[in-house]
Amino acid sequence: MQALLFEQGVQRIVEDQTGPITYYPDIITPALAKAWFDTLLNHGDWHESSRMMYERLVGVPRLHCHYDIASSALPSVLRDALAVVKQHVDVPFNSIGLNCYRDEHDSVALHNDKLHELVPHRPIVLLSLGATRTMVIQRKKPPRLKTELELEAGSLLLMGWNAQWHYDHGIPKLRCPVGPRISVAFRVRPEKADKTW
Predict the structure, then answer these.
(1) Whole-model pTM?
(2) DSSP string over 72-107
């Protein structure tokens, strides 16, 4: 994996054998981050979903959509975002997943990405657009060290594949009002015959 090309403002959350997890601010300008955010918010193929929790069906507190990078339906804004990300992380991404946190009530609980849905030793890269939200990163085993990281518009978070073994991450609800945020997640998924992820 190619190293990122700049160091100013970089936060290395984890550097040892359980990581890496590294935060890179300002990989794009505020103006470009806003333009991409507006385009995706207004034209993304957003869906609501629900899941069973405590024996009842509940709504997932965020919107989501997914794009296969090889698809002709990939929006041009995501092609542009992929090109920028690949300038910094030289990985053959084939999947882009988006989550839209509409306001302070939307969230995602602490979790790790399912490793069987990822190609081993390929990182996950998150590009943040829109409002700043706090990500909680917590070690699974004692000592359960916890980091709260402010994900700002135009920033990139790199999580190594092995970090999914050792850390959970999530976006908690907030008590104060906040605007919408879009997380653009670049992954390398295993090849599947039906190409449905």
Answers:
(1) 0.90
(2) TTS-HHHHHHHHHHHHHS-----EEEEEEE-STT--
For domain 13-187, say whether CATH 2.60.120.590 is its number: yes
Whether 125 and 89 have beta carbons less than 8 Å apart is answered as: yes
The residue ranges of every structural domain in the chain are 13-187
Number of H helices, E strands in the chain: 3, 13
Q: Which residue has the tokens 């193929």?
A: 45
pLDDT in tens, the chain (197 residues): 333 444 668 899 998 888 899 999 999 999 999 999 999 999 999 999 877 766 777 788 999 999 999 999 999 999 999 999 999 999 999 999 999 999 999 999 999 999 999 999 999 999 999 999 999 999 999 989 899 999 999 999 999 999 999 999 999 999 999 999 999 999 999 987 444 33
